[in-house]
Amino acid sequence: xxxxxxxxxxxxxxxxxTTIRLTVxxxxxxGIVCATTPFHPIDHTxxxxxxxxxxxxxxxxxxxxxxxxIGAAPRDGSAPISTGDDIEVRRDDPDWNWxxxxxxxxxxxxxxxxxxxxxxxxxWRHGLSAxxxxxxxxxxxxxxxxxGRWTKPVKDDALGHPDFDKLAITRSRIQPTGSVDHYxxxxxxxxxxxxxxxxxxxxxxLEAGINAVMxxxxxxxxxxxxxxxxxGVDAMRTFYxxxxxxxxxxxxxxxxxxxxxxxxxxQVSLSLSDDGSELRMEAARxxx
Length: 288
Fold this sequence. Notes:
Elements: E1 6-7, E2 15-26, E3 29-34, E4 36-37, E5 54-58, E6 61-65, E7 67-74, E8 82-83, E9 96-104, E10 115-120, H1 122-146, H2 164-168, E11 169-175, E12 178-184, H3 187-191, H4 199-220, E13 224-228, E14 237-243, E15 246-251, E16 265-272, E17 278-286
Helix pairs in contact: 1-4
């Protein structure tokens, strides 16, 4: 099987000239694996950031990349490439190779070995990158505002506050205009020492605190980026942000802007489910 796909999206790249390694079926559509790509795929294990969109041009034919997914196959070639939820091994399995699969509707034909041009939609990418950076920061701001509700020591976040965001989150969705995160307020969290007493009545105060912190962090125009341990799609990547409150470094496989000022104005709203078992945080951004 071909070696792992090399990716350039951590550095913010939007274009590449590359070689097509192979093609694979993806449902009723067609998947194209290239040696190198700037496309960020959706992660089937934590599908918070949607895939990049754009075009793949081969043999003078521009194909719309409608989706981009993770693929994996045994290195010894004993099985074909699996994609998305059909992958049954962990990302760190040393006996498997990992790929970015560009999904197109039209049959590309016999293109293995051909040169191809890849181009990511820059507006879509920037929106998702800003949404993802905002999502990381509002999680930290939420932790800060909820810090006083913990009665037992738990793991801290990158800024030294109890990491409610990582301990309670159940799902997250990022879009160019913002993000929505859901948190489970169950028995497990209470046993860890979190108190949800009077949370419903204090939501407006919490919102105000988060929004004030976000306004300050955006105004700082702090440096943001992605560090990576290697060039392959399987490499560990880390989001970093040099805030005045401290240096943030957390594992993250997504894309990000280069400065917090690119996020623009942020408005966070909080709500509880009817039975009080789930907290929902919606963060909306407006272009700067």
